[in-house]
Amino acid sequence: MNPIYSVVRSMNRHLSEIWEAILQEHAAELSSMFAEFGDRAYGVYIQQLMGPICEEVRKSGYEVSAGFRLSESVENWGPPEERERCVWYVVRDETGNPCGTAVLQIFHSHAQFHLPQPPRFLALEETEQEAILQALCTTGVRLSGLPLRYRHSAGDEPLEWEYGTDAGLLEYVQSYRGHTAVDFNYALSSWGRHGWELVQIVPHQDRLIGFFKRPVQQAGEGQ
């Protein structure tokens, strides 16, 4: 078996031990940074995570670069309160040969500094950027092992709406290297549990774009 799977299992064990502690330790700093610079605060948090994790990987005889490079990540999915970014790190053996890729999957809010789900690593055998992107654009790869969460909310018909779009819907019905596709329920429920309602799905070039709406929150209401 490709060693990337055992490496990523070890990375996930270490990640589960440190991600909350690092988040709590730097909560004030990261929230302040988010208020001023927005999404860049998550990049700083990822760097704080990857330092100790990469050190553990090196102890096991493998090499992986720490830090966060925007060009080696993709974020195409989810509502503003639960965006999904995947950051990839090619893992190399002691001779410098790539053995696979560890992908940090981090769900995060664009409304405030908040992680609605714990981060985790995925293991890919692919090591070239084009192949990595192809794998990550398959929902069955990214969402394997995640719980399908649903929430229904109801209320009076609002007078004002806000709107959002999701350009990654087609990827929820594609399969890749034996990974079965996940139907639209996951994607739509991800938006729905934050109060978004599907308005329309429109094909555009090689994508399906979903248009969503929800009531405008009044002052004093929760995120």
Write a short abstract of this structure.
This protein is α+β, with helices and mostly antiparallel strands. The protein has helices at 4-25, 27-37, 40-59, 129-136, 139-142, 184-192; strands at 73-77, 83-92, 98-108, 120-124, 161-166, 197-204, 207-215. A hairpin with a 5-residue loop joins strand 1 (73-77) and strand 2.
Written account of the structure:
This protein is an alpha+beta fold and 223 residues long. The chain is built from 6 helices and 7 strands. The strands form 2 sheets. It has a 4-stranded antiparallel β-sheet, sandwiched between helices. The protein starts with a helix and ends in an 8-residue tail after the last strand. Residues 150-156 have low confidence and may be disordered.
Numbering strands along the chain, what is their spatial order in the largest sheet?
1-2-3-4
Note the total helix count: 6
Largest sheet features: 4 strands, antiparallel
Count the domains: 2
The gyration radius over C-alpha positions equals 18 Å
- Counted beta strands: 7
Shape: globular
Mean pLDDT: 87
The proportion of residues in beta strands is 15-25%
Helix content: 25-40%
Question: Can you tell me the residue ranges where pLDDT is under 50 for at least 5 consecutive residues?
Answer: 150-156
Q: Structural class from helices and strands?
A: alpha+beta
- Our measurement of the CA-to-CA distance between the termini, rounded to an integer number of angstroms, reads 44 Å
Q: Give the H and E element order.
A: HHHEEEEHHEHEE
